[in-house]
């Protein structure tokens, strides 16, 4: 497991602009790791996704947005990727592609498609 944290993020409640460099940072993280979870450290649904992946034997790269200096901007990018839904985290990328949030990950797990996706991405070998 790799945790990406860069302290210094503003927590003043202001709206964060989505810049091309922020979008590129998210894309780079997602494409250079088999599984990436964008999370908030106190989010229970984020904990559920991380626990599921750990339980399956996956060591995802975890980006705790509330501890990352560009976390608010990254969250705005994830909000757009999630189709403007209220909940932008957890946001899970598998094999460089946006899989979705808690509902999508759990649905894939229940219907049996999650493990093949993880194997295809190189996150699982068995």
Task: Tell me about this structure.
The chain is of the alpha/beta class. The chain has one domain (2-7, 18-121): Glutaredoxin, CATH 3.40.30.10. Helices cover 43% and strands 21% of the residues. It is built from 5 helices and 5 strands; from the N terminus they run βαβαβαββαα. The chain has a 5-stranded mixed beta sheet, with helices on both faces. A hairpin with a 2-residue loop joins β4 (91-94) and β5. α1 (20-31) crosses α3. It is globular, with a radius of gyration of 14 Å. Belongs to the glutaredoxin family. CC-type subfamily. It is found in: Cytoplasm. InterPro entries: GlrX-like_pln_2, Glutaredoxin, Glutaredoxin_subgr, Thioredoxin-like_sf. Keywords: Cytoplasm, Redox-active center. Pfam families: Glutaredoxin.
């Amino acid at each position: 497991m790799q945790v990406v944290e860069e302290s210094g993020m503003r927590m003043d409640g202001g709206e964060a602009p989505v810049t091309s460099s922020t979008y590129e940072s998210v894309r780079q993280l997602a494409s250079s790791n088999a599984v990436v979870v964008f999370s908030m450290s106190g989010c229970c649904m984020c904990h559920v996704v991380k626990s599921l992946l750990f339980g399956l034997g996956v060591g995802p790269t975890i980006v705790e947005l509330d501890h990352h200096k560009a976390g608010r901007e990254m969250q705005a990018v994830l909000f757009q990727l999630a189709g403007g839904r209220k909940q932008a985290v957890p946001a899970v990328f598998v094999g460089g592609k946006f899989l979705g949030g808690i509902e999508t990950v759990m649905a894939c797990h229940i219907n049996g498609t999650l493990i093949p996706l993880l194997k295809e991405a190189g996150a699982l070998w068995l």
